[in-house]
From TrEMBL:
This is Cytosine deaminase. Gene3D superfamilies: Metal-dependent hydrolases (3.20.20.140), Urease, subunit C, domain 1 (2.30.40.10). InterPro entries: Amidohydro_3, Metal-dep_hydrolase_composite, Metal_Hydrolase, Metallo-hydrolase_Enzymes. Pfam families: Amidohydro_3 (PF07969).
Length: 396
């Protein structure tokens, strides 16, 4: 059956008043003089600002404690402290990745997110249990939220024998992307770790998204090794570097050599714009043609008490971290959770144009900059051509 929707009296970012016609989940027409399709559901936007559905470029649905009682965080300061604490807590508490990923996914959709990339822990304790939970959530949300799953070795790969095989199983069973983590500081052997990662990616024909927290020169060394493999294995456009803290701490000359190579190999960068870490230079990366986008990272888990499933808030935090104050600069912050994020993750048919999947958000805001700063309640959320949320609440 043909499904059609007509949104009238809405405004684009440039202020133009338009209508949008949606048929079978796609934007069929968008403009100032668009007639409603026959038998369409007609919705008056009331002059609201029309935005594309938001994109969460990096989160961990399987870890979240969203909607559950407060988790008292008493973990030590080291990365390894957090990894070990989380693994033990999840085991002892019976943390349910299926229930928690579903709760957080629904909250993301209510706030306007329609595309999402999540990293899911694969390790020799839980094996594929967390993946199975998130696969169930993806199936439940399939008509509303486009979910990419990254098979992520949170506890390390080479230091936990059997993890490589489990990652392969995860890719075979439905994970879309191969994850990796700090090959030098966690696995202790960046050459062997990266060799294993790229061999797996080649075997299963999957892209790579690597967490690179390694600082300064250690991070730069790992990054060079990674870029060598991208080039040697012709994986241009198939790799994302998440966090990339070293790129915010290196001397300019060394940093710019790396950024030029990242641009040439079409490697994308992800930032959560953390206030306590160095970050890659956003505007310089964009000037060099690098796709740099945003994500929450963890939301209310054992790693952090912070985070909410609202990509307008993440855009605001990106703006604050990078001192983006002008309206045109705040458009950059929004791009990090919309067009750039879709491009970096490889989500197809995205945006406000004819033929795109109809993922739309209406907010009462004067401009995109105003929406980022004020983060108004989502007046309407359309996912895959269907109204799924109104006034900040899911309809089902």
């Amino acid at each position: 059956m043909t499904r059609s929707l007509h949104l009238s009296n809405v405004r684009l970012a440039d202020g133009q008043r338009v209508a949008v016609s949606v048929v079978d989940g796609r934007i069929e027409a968008l403009g100032a003089h668009v007639a409603a399709p026959r038998d369409a559901h007609i919705e008056d936007g009331g002059g609201a600002l029309l935005l594309p559905g938001f994109v969460e470029g990096h989160t961990h649905l399987d870890k979240s404690n969203w909607g559950r009682p407060w988790y008292r965080n008493e973990v030590g300061p080291l990365l390894t402290d957090r990894i070990g604490n989380e693994r033990e807590w999840r085991r002892a508490s019976g943390h349910d990745a299926a229930a928690q990923s579903l709760a957080l996914s629904r909250a993301f959709v209510a706030a306007g997110t329609t595309r999402l990339r999540t990293h899911v822990d694969i390790d020799t304790d839980a094996r594929l249990r967390h993946l199975e939970g998130v696969l169930a959530t993806r199936q439940t949300m399939r008509d509303t939220l486009d979910v990419q799953i990254v098979a992520f070795p949170q506890s390390g790969m080479l230091i936990r024998p059997g993890t490589v095989e489990l990652l392969g199983d995860a890719l075979a069973q439905g994970a879309d992307v191969l994850g990796a983590l700090d090959p030098a500081l966690i696995d202790g052997d960046p050459v062997a770790s990266l060799d294993a990662t790229f061999a797996l990616a080649q075997r299963y024909r999957k892209p790579i998204d690597i967490h690179l927290h390694e600082p300064g020169e250690i991070g730069a060394f790992t990054l060079k090794l990674l870029l060598d493999r991208v080039e040697a294995m012709s994986m241009q456009g198939q790799v994302v570097i998440s966090h990339g803290f070293c790129l915010g701490a290196l001397p300019e000359r060394e940093r710019d050599v790396l950024l030029d190579r990242i641009a040439r190999l079409h490697v994308a960068l992800l930032t959560s714009a953390p206030p306590s870490c160095t970050v890659p230079p956003l505007k310089l990366c964009r000037d060099k043609g690098i796709t740099m986008f945003g994500g929450n990272d963890g939301v209310r888990d054992t790693w952090t008490p912070y985070g909410v499933p609202d990509m307008l808030e993440r855009a605001m935090l990106i703006g604050m971290r990078y001192d983006l104050r002008r309206d045109d600069d705040l458009m950059i912050a929004f791009d990090c959770v919309s067009e750039a994020a879709a491009r970096g993750c490889g989500f197809a048919d995205y945006g406000l144009h004819v033929g795109a999947r109809a993922d739309l958000v209406l907010v009462d805001a004067e401009s995109v900059a105003h929406a980022v700063v004020a983060r108004p309640k989502r007046k309407l959320v359309v996912a895959n051509g269907r109204i799924v949320a109104r006034d900040g609440a899911l309809l089902s």
